[in-house]
């Protein structure tokens, strides 16, 4: 298992800050969008609460259990007919607003709006590059570490579920599907987890993250079995 010993924690940070990442495409072609790739560690559980933005009502739904192994926070988009992102797995994020000071500011604003995690509760690691969608969005992904202060709140009209997916699980799939060192096409590049599948541009981001982490993390974390 991957554990937050000093070496493993530092390698995750060094892999992100010390690696080359996909560059920004022409700005007049794509709509600027940002997402937050949020790592989580720790032995404290976190409550997940559905919060209706219209009525203000709040409903306890679930708990992210304590786990000392690193994970990533994913959202599953709402199951609403006609919603273009219906049921898709994603990182918290959205389109850049004119008032956002930067693409990083967009990612942090969307993180707080979508799951109630404020910028003060995130240790930022920086950008991990640009990823394009088939509908001409340029997504800049930013990585950070959640300090796990407070509960997660989300609006059920936008999000149906919150997932904490172990990094070890994603590394296992990446290794077993022989994704290392190559770029699979859209149909092959999938990362299943329980009853959901990460695909599309979110899978592209995961693939890049696994590629930069994998060479560094194996010698220092007690895995090649990863999550098994």
UniProtKB/TrEMBL annotation:
<dbReference type="InterPro" id="IPR000086">
    <property type="entry name" value="NUDIX_hydrolase_dom"/>
</dbReference>
<protein>
    <recommendedName>
        <fullName>Nudix hydrolase domain-containing protein</fullName>
    </recommendedName>
</protein>
<dbReference type="GO" id="GO:0046872">
    <property type="term" value="F:metal ion binding"/>
</dbReference>
<keyword id="KW-0479">Metal-binding</keyword>
<keyword id="KW-0378">Hydrolase</keyword>
<feature type="domain" description="Nudix hydrolase">
    <location>
        <begin position="29"/>
        <end position="192"/>
    </location>
</feature>
<dbReference type="Pfam" id="PF00293">
    <property type="entry name" value="NUDIX"/>
</dbReference>
<dbReference type="InterPro" id="IPR015797">
    <property type="entry name" value="NUDIX_hydrolase-like_dom_sf"/>
</dbReference>
<dbReference type="InterPro" id="IPR045121">
    <property type="entry name" value="CoAse"/>
</dbReference>
<keyword id="KW-0460">Magnesium</keyword>
<keyword id="KW-0464">Manganese</keyword>
<dbReference type="GO" id="GO:0010945">
    <property type="term" value="F:coenzyme A diphosphatase activity"/>
</dbReference>
